[in-house]
Specification:
The chain has helices at 3-6, 20-29, 50-57, 60-63, 76-86, 91-94, 108-117, 139-152; strands spanning 14-15, 34-38, 44-49, 101-103, 123-127, 133-138. The chain has 156 residues and is of the alpha/beta class. The strands form 2 sheets. A 3-stranded mixed beta sheet has the order 1-2-3. Strands 4-5-6 form a 3-stranded mixed beta sheet. Helix 3 (50-57) packs across helix 5 (76-86).
Length: 156
């Protein structure tokens, strides 16, 4: 079975020049934690995730581990100020420019291995040979397909 057989093809995506605040609203409306970022030709150039936004919102002394007891640091007010500053930024400034991409003709086993090995992404962005967005496969999509095959009694 290939990635193209289980990928979700109705994919929300962002443009690199969009405003982060507007994209985050769209992500919440669609219950998404990440969006592929594409150029004018739908070539994938990155991914914007809630984690990548949080990495920019949280002070560096929190994310680096320099502060041994972060409970004493200012919390929501500081995060809110950082968020307000960043929400006007362009997606290109906060996106991860090395997303987990797989080809549409890769095997599901190969996609599964890539998702497991990835420390930053629980979704694989499916692209064609020109690196254009074709779909997305989440770890949950793979588990759902395996469960469905199991219920059908499929045995390879």
């Amino acid at each position: 079975m290939l990635a193209s057989n289980i990928m979700i093809t109705d994919v929300e995506f962002a443009a690199a020049d969009e405003c982060v605040g507007e994209v985050l609203v769209r992500m919440r409306e669609h219950h998404l934690r990440m969006l592929p970022v594409v150029d004018a030709d739908r070539r994938v150039v990155g991914v914007l995730s809630t984690n990548s936004v949080l990495e920019h919102v949280a002070p560096s002394y929190i994310t680096s581990g320099d502060l041994s007891r972060p409970s004493y640091a200012p919390d929501l007010g500081l995060l809110r100020r950082h968020f307000n500053e960043l929400s006007e930024s362009r997606v290109s400034e906060l996106m991860d420019d090395k997303p987990l991409c797989v080809n549409e003709d890769e095997s599901i086993l190969s996609v599964t291995a890539a998702v497991i090995r990835s420390e930053r992404h629980e979704c694989a962005i499916v692209v064609d040979h020109d690196h254009r967005l074709r779909g997305v496969i989440s770890a949950g999509d793979i588990v759902d397909r395996v469960r469905a095959l199991s219920e059908e009694g499929f045995d390879a």
